[in-house]
Amino acid sequence: MNPVSGPSSPYLRFRKATISARRGPELDHVYGTGGGIGSVLEQFRYAGAGDADVSLRGASVEGTRAGTMQRRRDHIVFWIGDGTATITSAHGGTVVVPPGRPLFLSAGTVYDFTAATSRVTMLHLSDAILRTTVGAQDTAAVQDLLFEELARDEHALHRLRAVLEGSTAALTSADTSADARAAVNDRVVAAVLAAFPRREADPVAPTPVGRAIAFMHEHAHRELSVQEVAEAAGLSVRGLQDAFARQLQTSPMTHLRALRLDGVHEDLASGSVDSVADVARAWQFHHPGRFASSYAARFGEKPSATLRWARTPRP
User: Fold this and answer.
1) What span, in angstroms and rounded, lies between the C-alpha atoms of 253 and 256?
2) Which domain holds residue 183?
3) By the 8 A CB rule, do 42 and 62 touch?
């Protein structure tokens, strides 16, 4: 297991309080619950802090809720403070979660849930930081990262609880320096992965979307049209667009742009490149303003800041 290398994302704070039966579209996007949650909430509070890679969040709610969590950007370790929660994954496993027992929800897995609890705590982990830590960058976006949902090793679970208890202040403080935040993120991720090991997906034949994404990875440095990607996938352009929307909730070219942005980020974080402009052009970004805006939206900082951080000498 390798420590994460690269700049920590800027500090983020999350807060929402409402008296409503709806949590709002921003949270439905985060948790993949755009299809709706069956409940009548009298009161809902949601707050948290951290950065784009690791954040700690909590919700205080009333009422019983049920629904489906579709694929999400983040992996989530959650535990309830009271009551019960029942989670059924897409592969058919059902877990009844008691208070205080953490459960890992893999980002690429769909879950049905029923929750009768007033307090939920959630540790969000980006797919990018987990891929870097487990050394799975080469499988990014082609194969979902999957992790054991239940912790089997009680010692590792005890260690995770201790690490979280000792890291909460640094995770949630706006005063934590970038270096300190990166270090605490590494400790938290290592403890999570010790408690919830990665598991391999059942081998399956490549899907059209999988073939499309593999083609994008192979040819991301050159100009690509959606027609070329569709042909590589064995679909029409409309068929490819429908498949991406259904499986990944995005479009093929939006996915390609995100893949290229990740490539730029990795190159800049290495600190071994000459300039931001050269790297951007190499990844087919030819409009500096639009590129900088897209990069900042994805990584929370300017590309020049990533390169500057990577070049800063460390003791």
Assistant:
1) 5
2) 12-199
3) yes
